[in-house]
Amino acid sequence: MERLMSEDAPCIEHLALIGNFLPRKCGLATYTTDVFKAVRERFPRVRVDVYAMDDHPGRYSYPPEVTHSIAQQDRDAYIDAARRIEASGAQALWIQHEYGIYGGAAGAHLIALLDRLTIPVIATLHTVLEHPSADERRVMEALLRRCSKVIVMVEKGKEILERVHGADGRAIAVIPHGVPDREYAEPDAFKARFGWECRKVVLTFGLLAPNKGIETLIAAMPEIVANEPQALYIVLGATHPNLVAHEGEAYRDGLKMLAASKGVADHVRFIDTFLEQDELVDYLQAADIYATPYTNPAQITSGTLAYAVGVGKAVVSTPYIHAREILDGDHGRIVQFGDSAGFAREIVELLSDDAERAALSRRAYARGRAMLWPRGVERAMTCLGEAMAMRPRRLENVTELAPLAPDLSAVERMSDATGMLQHSIYSVPDRRHGYCIDDNARALILLSRMEGLDDAVRDKWTSIYAAFVQHAWNPERRRFRNFMHFDRNWCEDEGSEDSNGRALWALGVTAHEAHAHKHRDWAVSLFDATASIAFELGSPRARAFAMLGAAAMLEAHPGHAMARTILSRFGDELIALLDAARRPEWSWFEIVLAYDNARLPEALLRAGKALQRDDFVKVGVETLDWIVARQTSPEGRFRAVGTESFGREYADPLPFDQQPLEAQATIDACDAAYAATRDRRWLDEAMRAYRWYLGANDLDLPLATAQDGGCFDGLMPTGLNRNQGAESILALQLASCAISALSKAAENVAGPASAVA
Prior knowledge:
Elements: H1 2-7, E1 14-19, H2 27-42, E2 47-54, E3 66-71, H3 75-88, E4 92-97, H4 108-114, E5 121-125, H5 134-146, E6 149-152, H6 155-165, E7 172-174, H7 188-191, E8 200-205, H8 214-227, E9 231-236, H9 241-247, H10 250-261, E10 268-271, H11 277-285, E11 289-292, H12 303-310, E12 314-317, H13 321-326, E13 333-334, H14 340-352, H15 354-368, H16 373-389, H17 409-413, E14 421-425, E15 428-436, H18 437-449, H19 455-472, E16 473-474, E17 479-480, E18 483-484, H20 497-513, H21 517-530, H22 540-556, H23 561-581, H24 599-611, H25 614-630, H26 660-677, H27 681-694, E19 704-705, E20 710-711, E21 714-716, E22 719-721, H28 726-750
Parallel strand pairs: 1-2, 1-4, 2-3, 4-5, 5-6, 6-7, 8-9, 8-11, 9-10, 11-12, 12-13
Antiparallel strand pairs: 14-15, 15-18, 16-17, 19-20, 21-22
């Protein structure tokens, strides 16, 4: 296996492991702990970080092996764990999945964690359901989509995944439940340790609960004792914690009463304890027969059954899935569910025939040798290596990719006679969410800036987007509305501050850059009628948007008093915000990062150029330099401030989810910095941000669909958000327009040889 790991698959040096962990008392905790130990013993050079699921935070005293615990019902704890795993440098994640240990509907919080990881994932599925609920199906299928490989412990599990969930069989590995490596031993060698000398011992082990079928065995004991007077039935294990929490030990007491009523109280012994592996195996080796009278036919995993086979026990079991597979081929005896007479018959036969019992035990032991923990973790590590090998390679020469020509196709696809629709499902417009002024204002700007359009096409769409902005104005409230249903009814009487700021921005740009006089005249008129609302905006971003509109208006009409006042007043206020929030390591206007960050320095830079205010330009360059540094990955690529960063005070940004809007804002801000300073560094920074769309990003995945002018909605830890909404499409197209204009400006200044593109 060492050879296979080093030659046939990437070498795994650092692994993250999620599941329950001892001292939490449950079978999955035992399993995860055994997995951890087996990996450490078989691959001592592999670092394993354990993330323990915690149903009662603060109750368990976890050992040092547990890197971090995750509060089961706290969704934010899963997000925090994802950040920790990413920051740790772990190369892959191995999940132990069982329903009921992860929070949210059917464990949906786990999917939130996976959505924020970039590393490969495999999962061991401890339960596979024939008839999942809607929530169970949704979560399982999300898990299957995210995992490079999944592991099941029986062939039936693979068959169910393929049939019920449509899973790809090539991505499913069947690896039996691991068992400890113990020499085969005769039971009599261990019985004295427990005071069972001269007894014929039948044992059942596990957390005590009604689905274990203990009643069936107790009901069989009178017949067993009649034939074997020294028979002793051991019920080993603590009561399930959830059962204790609801009814105390009522279930255990009821079983004791049942034994007494059957006249076998002296032949049934309850040992109320939770055992770790070594002590459990000692008990198992002292038993003559191991019985699993479980009542659930769909049970696909039984660790105790695996351990019993692993140490060579003669097993009598009901035909649940795991038992049918592990005991087939005459490796155990099968009795139907609830069949006490059948259990009595098989157990009496085995207890009375030492040779047959010994032969069955030997056959079980031989099967168990293929299930030893080292073998299981070798195969699992192979799955992990294959998962790592499936990761896409980094794009080469991505910095040489040429900018895309602006393309109106996707914008037209998302638009109708009313305006531009907000959202899409993949590339298909989603009418349920209607329209908003934010997108129609951006579309109006695009129609002014996109070169090479047919005059009739430009006139048509400029008029449609302008009409939406005009209709959004509510003179009674003196505010622009934002959201409109698909049936053309407004959702509100006034929109957000940001939407009002963006409307003013679009009007200023249209007044300055629209190709037709009629559109410029309309924009000037509506700007003059509405611009005073800017002074009622409190949000720094809304004010920045208004400043961008005012800067454009001032270029079109140098004497425009309202535009000059907006630029001067809001510019001074941005500097005051910076002074209030500044720290030695924090040169920013707010104590948090949010969306459209680069619009704040851009607004100062454009105001400084328009007003000839060197102080505005200086602060704009300083803050743009600061935010650009935080939007740079260790590899030197543009990394948009992730949406999960929003609202974290004085904290470095998080990488996901990355939105196309951030790259466009940075390009525009770099354009403003170049216009104000003629420093060619800003041309390079603009191009670096633009290449994010082309694939020069953290995941090496292009967001732009060059064939039709579309753009995916975001860069997630696991890949692309493949929807193509209006905001994303417009961000790409406006960014392409800006890069094209920058190239021409650079050529005019320095000649073609040193142009930005």
